[in-house]
Write a structure and sequence with these properties.
29% helix, 205 residues, GyrI-like_CCH_Lin2189-like, 6 strands, GyrI-like, 29% strand, single chain, Multidrug-efflux Transporter 1 Regulator Bmrr, Chain A, alpha+beta
Length: 205
């Protein structure tokens, strides 16, 4: 049976529109770092190479190589870790040019270093791109976290971050880092702004 993350991992990817406490297990990702406005072309290019790599893994059996433990699955959604430069943190208002980010796409558990290297080799041959040199394959474990579903414009996220902070304070928790994670359940290029769905999450202790 095909593994559909929307069906089989609802607790991680389809939270309610209210803050909740979750424990995120160790996960594998293709990742790439960047700086600047996510509306710029550079950000789109980085997303593109992540998806190309991810689909290289997904389509391996059709290209004559089946990784050990491979199973049919739906490619996971784009995620991002967001922070600000020191200059950006000093500003009174958000300057998107000062954003620091790591965008990533989760990979199934059967993906290891060998499979990642195979995906890179396939991608270099079929869709060469200079940004492929910046792709990293690694494991990340968020652990104890607060998350909730955000609906609508990314610019309105602070309203829900305020709700998450209130929940955190009332639960006697503290943030581990000012970096937060976003999981993009909607494609901003195809979905109207007011219908966008994004998981907001940050790690706590």
């Amino acid at each position: 049976m095909k593994h559909e993350w929307r069906k089989h991992e609802k607790e991680l990817y389809l939270p309610k529109a209210i803050p909740e406490l979750v424990k995120i297990p160790k996960q594998k990702f293709f990742m790439i770092k960047g700086k600047g406005n996510p509306n710029d072309e550079d950000f789109s290019e980085r997303i593109g190479v992540l998806y190309t790599m991810s689909y290289a893994v997904r389509m391996m059996p059709k290209n004559g190589f089946t990784p050990e433990g491979y199973f049919e699955y739906t490619v996971y959604p784009l995620e991002g870790l967001w922070d600000l430069t020191e200059e950006g943190k000093k500003a009174d208002a958000l300057n998107k040019d000062e954003l620091l980010y790591t965008i990533m796409i989760r990979q199934p558990d059967f993906v290891d270093e060998n499979v990642a290297e195979k995906a890179l080799a396939i991608t270099r041959k079929k869709k060469p791109h200079p940004l492929l040199d910046e792709i990293v394959f690694d494991e990340v474990e968020d652990g104890l976290s607060i998350q909730m579903l955000h609906k609508g414009s990314y610019n309105n996220e602070p309203e829900n971050f305020a709700k998450m902070k209130e929940f955190m304070d009332n639960s006697g928790l503290q943030r581990k880092s000012m970096i937060h994670r976003e999981i993009y359940l909607s494609d901003a290029r195809k979905v109207e702004e007011d219908k966008l769905k994004t998981v907001l999450r940050y790690m706590v202790k």
